[in-house]
Amino acid sequence: MTLMWDSVVMLLSQVVFFLFGWFFFMKQLFRDYEVHKRLVQILFSITFALSCTMFELIIFEIIGFLEPSSRFLHWKLGLYSILFVLIVVLPIYFSFSLFRSITFSNVQLIVLVRRKWILPLTVVSWIIFIYFFWKIGDPFPILSARHGIFTIEQAISRVGVIGVTVMAMLSGFGAVNAPYCYMTIFMRPVGQVQIAQMERKLMHTMEMIVAKKRRLCILEKEVALSAFTQGSDSQGGLLQKLWGSVSFSSSSLKDQISTLNSEIIPLEELSRYLFLEIVELRNMRVCASILMKKFLRF
Known about the structure:
By secondary structure, the protein is an all-alpha fold.
């Protein structure tokens, strides 16, 4: 009876963690997620729920909640489940999604590859992953001689090595990225006036680009017309005398076209820079308003 009650408590906690991971994925982590693959959300929620369950069992061990035998049973179940997800389910689904996303120009070839080669390629890639996953633990003295090959210690030791390595990389990235993202809090606030000024600059730049491209089109038409005129000229007479002036005019038009092209390229770069600046200013304004609301609510 005690085991059943403890199992109900653990099941309810896992359901709560699963729902929390589901809403966290939808509302916070990927709120602009437009692909809508339910299996991705389910796998994330399952992984999140199992991770929180392991942490919950550690807390239960400290405070003495639930029976010791029940805690040990659910600890082993959770450990086997999360190792199965990390080593088998997630790599297979990642490989399957990767090969399924490969597209070709021929539609019939797409169907043929999807039916015949996606599953074998997924299995082969998972076997390669298992090989490197196994070999990564050979240089490290993380096992004792009494542990067999197909024991849980083999998987935990390698997951631990990979996990510590990934956490160290993420810590280094966070140590650099966090000040870059949050030092803007101490900058002067961004008002609507600054955003409007940048938008006016962007509009003026776009108008200049449009005007120069319109002028470029006119010059290209004149060059094409002069080439047609040159082709229709006959030899001798008055038209032969005008050949030099027509050639000089065509050369002048080409120089103007080259000048306009050299002026349009930096203007387009400037327009992209101004657009990114406007987006950054708007994001800073939104972040400042959110922080102010949280501060006032607190």
